[in-house]
Amino acid sequence: MTTISSTTILRSRNAAAPDKVLSTLLLRYPRCIHAEFMTHRVFSRNAASSRAIPVEKLIKDVEENPFIPVYWGANQRGMQAGDEIDAPLYLQGASHFDMIDRCYDPISKEAGWLHARDQAISAARAFAKAGYHKQIVNRLLEPFAHITVLVSGTEWDNFLELRDHEAAEPHIQILAREVRKCLEREDDIQDLEPGEWHLPFVDEKVMEVRPRARGGIHTSDAIKLSVARCASTSYKTVDGFDMTLDKAVELHDRLVGSTPIHASPAEHVAQADGVSRWETYDGEGSDTPIWENKREHGNFIGFRQYRHML
């Protein structure tokens, strides 16, 4: 069955400008709509990579939870399908050949889709057995696979307006509605004073001075732990975010110390920025904050991305 979900990882409000909320969500959706999601450039993202997932693990996923369309629209001109239809398929190799009518027996659209999946699995196993790398083999499985994506952003309105809309592709409509549910909640938002940190996947108590042995970890270590756990989205499943601090520090230093730098996981970690002053333009509308460190916001507003502070 098709899985489309949005789970809140962490949401933080900048107390200096309460309308600015940074939300980090963990999304799961059919891989076929990933390109559409990627067009929204206001988001920071890390996605599970087909190049990193073992072939048999991805096969198990598409066997147990394949992407199956939720809307079977009729062909027509343009990007949007017509009304749903339930036309049978006459598919060689998927049904019995009727010797009297000299044609294959009809099968349902769902059965035809799963037959195509089974053919892709068979081909993938053959390529893997022949010694081809998973970065090649797994491409055969992608049409039937889901993808896990960690996304952070402060500006969601355009995404919701475009994608939670009847003209949008049906599966990304469902995703947008799941995201909206997360963003409409107010009871799971933490308030951050300027200088405090948004640290996804860090539940440990963060200390500025006290040593780790007294019940917390230093802010610098907490930042590295958060970056490393965000990075693990690319090659682990959701239950892989429990890496130890020592491993996290090693991974963080390898990512940000490499040439070229691999800094996209550092975009999810951010510090609430301060407001230097407020301005009103043309005497109309609400006051606009002038941020102390706007150049370090990246694609956020009101938060300094750790990536731009490196």
UniProtKB/TrEMBL annotation:
Picking any one GO biological process from the record gives: dTMP biosynthetic process
Gene3D superfamilies under this entry? 3.30.1360.170
GO MF assignments: flavin adenine dinucleotide binding; thymidylate synthase (FAD) activity
Q: Which domain of life is it from?
A: Bacteria
Q: What is this protein called?
A: Thymidylate synthase complementing protein
Question: Taxonomic classification, please?
Answer: Bacteria, Pseudomonadati, Pseudomonadota, Alphaproteobacteria, Sphingomonadales
